[in-house]
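COMPLEX REQUEST
Ligand: fe (ii) ion
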Amino acid sequence: MRRSEVNEIMARADTFIRSHGYILPPFAYWTPAEMQARRGDIGGIVEGRLGWDITDYGKGHFAQTGLFLFTVRNGRPADLAAGRGMLYAEKIMISRVEQLSPLHRHVIKAEDIINRGGGRLTIKLFASAADGSIDREARVSVPCDGVMRSFGPGDVLALMPGESVTLMPGVWHAFWAEKSEVLIGEVSTVNDDLTDNIFAEPLDRFSTITEDCEPDHLLVSDYPAWLG
Ligand SMILES: [Fe+2]
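STATUS: Structure written out below.
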């Protein structure tokens, strides 16, 4: 993706998020230079990989295959190992109309995917076979706002604003918005996007950026190069 495209997506996302009454935390608006100047105080942001995350999954067509994410909070891997403490994470995401987030599952993370407003969020579901691969024959049951619902392999669950689903580790899922873009909340177990996304086809979770202008704000995937 081009940096100019990333800047444009950030500005558009901020407007859309605010239009639904959700406001990003202060560090969302820091410039790269401000982040560098504060580096000594922001270990929690850098190590938790909090912040802007825009991906085209390496396919080069953001409108068709892509997702806007912002990680608002993230727990500590050490707490996860200890079984107590900050075991949770929260993201706010935007899926555009017919913009696919490709089929994947998680090993560690359970996630609630919440339609926080906009159009209809559609989620294709499969169960995992014993070896973790896609089970194209088994039904899959998922809790939706406290009520269990059962789906055939590859069936599509539709969430209207206010509705949510809990996806336990191993449940394969792909999603996109219908009719109008959707503001999506995610509440999950501690999140590690470097290791805990298993895709059905080979994909890059983070995009390679072509630097055609200065970044307005850093992406999480910029942190190693810009912040060490
Ligand atoms: Fe997921």
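REMARKS: The chain has one domain: 3-227. The radius of gyration is 17 Å.
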